[in-house]
Amino acid sequence: MAHMASSTPRQLTVGFDLDMTLIDSRPGIHACYTALAEHTGTYIDADLAITRLGPPLEEELINWFPAEQIAAIADQYRGMYPTIAIAATPALPGAREAIAAVRKAGGRAIVVTAKYEPNAKLHLEHLGIEPDAVIGNLWAEQKAAALREHDAGVYVGDHEGDVRAARAADALSVTVATGPYNAAELRALGADVVLDDLTEFPDWLAGYREAPRA
């Protein structure tokens, strides 16, 4: 109940996006699109595709394949992905420290991503990043359901869709300028907090936790 909030503050739960927030997925995705083009004989501009990361895979594939083929091509891509993309994908600077900062604060860190959930988990396992939960296959406002279910008060992302997700979940929108938008663009999109990258997150979190709240 709302009137109990001051005496029993809810546990800190922070949601994180995956692609271009926790991981630099561009090398692995570029390699996967290149392989997909070779396998299907269909031209895909992988250099262009990796500038548009964030939305679901199908939204990119529709630029290169007929609509009736998208479901099958997406399955093919996701099947190829583990052997091609996982090892090629590094963590972004500060990713591990950001998760650790939430834990150190006694909170829970969850990952909510549009990426196919099994592949999202493979990325995190490969990099030794262990969030409390991983929820995949959700984009933009769809992410709000998972954020609400886990009572996340903060959602950290890099994309317009992540700002929309936080808004829909009544969570604070924290953004990092490591994806397709620079800091000024993220502010213009309505992000509550804009960081250059996740290396700034632990200090931000410390200040956030100390700030008085209504």
Automatic annotation (TrEMBL):
Keywords carried by this UniProt record: Hydrolase
A molecular function (GO) term: hydrolase activity
Coiled-coil region: none
Superkingdom as given in the UniProt entry: Bacteria
A Pfam family the protein falls into: HAD
Protein name: HAD family hydrolase
Record organism: Streptomyces shaanxiensis
